[in-house]
Amino acid sequence: SAVISQKPSRDICQRGTSLTIQCQVDSQVTMMFWYRQQPGQSLTLIATANQGSEATYESGFVIDKFPISRPNLTFSTLTVSNMSPEDSSIYLCSVGAGTDHGYTFGSGTRLTVV
Amino acid sequence: GDSVTQMEGPVTLSEEAFLTINCTYTATGYPSLFWYVQYPGEGLQLLLKATKADDKGSNKGFEATYRKETTSFHLEKGSVQVSDSAVYFCALGPSNTGKLIFGQGTTLQVKP
Fold this sequence. Notes:
The structure holds two protein chains of two kinds.
Chain A: E1 4-7, E2 10-13, E3 19-25, E4 31-37, E5 43-50, E6 56-57, E7 68-72, E8 75-80, E9 89-96, E10 103-105, E11 109-113
Parallel strand pairs in A: 2-11
Antiparallel strand pairs in A: 1-3, 3-8, 4-5, 4-9, 5-6, 7-8, 9-10, 9-11
Chain B: E1 3-6, E2 11-14, E3 19-21, E4 23-26, E5 32-38, E6 44-50, E7 56-59, E8 62-65, E9 75-77, E10 86-93, E11 101-102, E12 106-111
Parallel strand pairs in B: 2-12
Antiparallel strand pairs in B: 1-4, 3-9, 5-6, 5-10, 7-8, 8-9, 10-11, 10-12
């Protein structure tokens, strides 16, 4: 299965600023997903990023707040913009070859907004 | 819409006890089912999966059987260890979207 390198692993940011999270995959993948895990909660899908097209956002998430880039088949970034303390969460990227094969997750970015 | 429901935690067991974590789902079509584990301070790891009814997924002593008639995918282990302490997530992969839908997670604490 694919290996994902996600960074930064953690950060503490001031409110009103932005943070860009990177995910690098060791093989070419079609689908990449970005999730948010709020403290003590489950994972919620933010958006699906496919190379060569605009990301598809889930209900409750908008591009202005969470812009995503997918310049090639091995790399993606998620930016958390104009942060507030409510954005404090773990953000994870994930790749998969389809639901029959399972999905691989990055190690996550622990974001604290102060 | 599709959804996953897990038993509430935390579940606290003594070492070598039998573990069951219940998971039920609601879905149209024929989804794949997964169990993921999150150890403290780490990301998610795929523990096991099943892609069709009556399939049994197994890994590291954990098992789960895809039961279409009861829409369940309960996780079991015969003898837990302290190192199994983690958060366990049941997830559903609808066949036509490529996305995963997660349950709320169940925290397992195993005491020596």
